[in-house]
Amino acid sequence: MTQQEDTRIRVGVVGFGNYGKAAAKAVGKCRDMELVAIFSKRDPQKLQNSYAKVYPTDTVAQFADRIDVVIICDTLATKLQEETPQLAQYFHTVDAHPLRGNPPSAAEVDAKRQLRMEELENMAKDIAARQAALDAAAGVAQTGVSQATSQATADGNAAPGGEGTEDLDEGIHEVSGMMLPAFIKEPIFQPVYKAFPDYFAAVDQAGQSTKHVSLCAVGWEPGLMSMFRVISDSLFPKTKTYTFWGRGISMQWSNAIRAFDGVLDAVAYQVPKEEPLTAVLNGEPIYDDSRKALHYMECYVVADPAYDKEQLREEIMEMPGWFADYDTQVTFLSRDEMREFHSRLIHAGLILSRASTSQGVNEQIKLEIDMDDNPEFTAYVMVAAARAAYRAGQAGWSGAHTMMEIPPIWMHPDSPEKLRFQISES
User: Fold this and answer.
1) Cβ distance 42 to 16 under 8 Å?
2) I need a surface site. Which of 62, 101, 202, 213 has the fewest CB within 10 A?
3) pLDDT above 80 for 230
4) DSSP track, 380-425
5) Which pLDDT score is estimated for 208?
6) What residues have CB less than 8 Å from 78, skipping those under 6 apart?
């Protein structure tokens, strides 16, 4: 299977945040691709740029005869899981689903929400009843005052004060449409999303039914490093592989925090713990290679003051499948502090695989990634995957797959024939 030299892959980009902008830029640098359109949920008139015209996201299907592959740069917080199965009916797709988590079901989240809202409603009813009682008492007192005033006026004396007429206005404010004490903030709830197997199955069904190919969970991790782990683990019967991330800002983990109501901005740093990292690099044994033993998370959050910060901290730290698996620190900042101290989107990754092929014979494979810009690195991987998705479709594939399942040669812009010659000459 070869691609004609004069045929360019027609690409659309869905989402125009950090990933989307980087993907649009990357497509423009590929000689075998053409960026047809960008799609966003935000006002397209405010997002016009030099890469391609921006259209509303809900118009993507209208481009079914003009676009071959769409690169989906939205996140869990911006409806990635709903969009991809829909778009897979019309196009080949590539997405950066983070794989993470065994989340609570929508029913479980809704039950927790209902319980908390019932608590607040009961509190609001109690306050309203107390206020009504005070108002009634104040009315009685006012009647007595009026009578006393008339008598005092007749007698030439001053009117008495209205003791007991105070109300509850001070220290009461509106929360979720209810009048509650000032110390009560807007409640925080776990974001609702599907576990990856459920998402993958939905995308696969859509692609199988319309003969489109979807590459899911594409990026440097998961994605590129996933491929490398599969290769290294497949070479030797007994391989021990260690993976470290960071220190750097993870876009996917940051987006997971942004999915919470009340979060205005957030970054999450993945940080290797020094002791196990040093031991692995020195070839020394470590006896706990769990995620929590190898890494910790530093989270910096700009929160809406109307929301409960301490509850938000707790919800983030206990987010199942995500931060609950790590020692996690959550620090609240202002917008200015976020811009000043956490604007560089650097990241890094390390995979180290060791195996013993014979008695006293040891082998080691090592992959290191260093990024000045995490979104740009990820975007270039997604663009290469878009090429592979198109070629997989040309070869008769359909349904959902991951980067581990596709021939790496399909990601390269050159033909297999040209690459074979280059390999023979290297």
Assistant:
1) yes
2) 62
3) yes
4) HHHHHHHHHHHHHHHTT--EEE-GGGS-GGGGSSS-HHHHHHHHHH
5) 97
6) 15, 17, 41
In angstroms, the CA 255 to CA 15 distance is 14
**Using CA atoms, how far apart are residues 85 and 82, in angstroms rounded to an integer?**
6
Whole-angstrom Cα distance, residue 211 to residue 32?
Answer: 23
- Give the HSE-up count for residue 146: Cα atoms under 13 Å, Cβ half-sphere: 6
Residue 122, H or E segment: helix 106-155
Distances in Å between the Cα of 169 and the Cα atoms of 130, 178, 251, 305, 306 are 11, 13, 44, 21, 19
- DSSP 8-state code for residue 58: G
End-to-end CA distance of the chain: 23
Q: Give the closest residue to 127 by CA, choosing from 85, 178, 177.
A: 178
What's the one-letter identity of residue 113?
R
Q: Name residue, tokens 């876009």.
A: 251
Sequential DSSP letters for 300-316? EEEE-TTB-HHHHHHHH
The CA-based dihedral angle spanning residues 251, 88, 21, 391, taken in that order and rounded to the nearest 10 degrees: 100
Whether 317 and 328 have beta carbons less than 8 Å apart is answered as yes
| pLDDT reading at 193 higher than 80 | yes
Q: Please write down the HEC assignment for all residues of 234-290.
A: HHCCCEEEEEEECCEEEHHHHHHHHCCCCEEEEEEEEEECHHHHHHHHCCCCCCCCC
pTM of the model: 0.86
Please give the Cα distance from 204 to 394 (Å, whole number): 17
Report d(CA 306, CA 262) in Å as an integer.
8
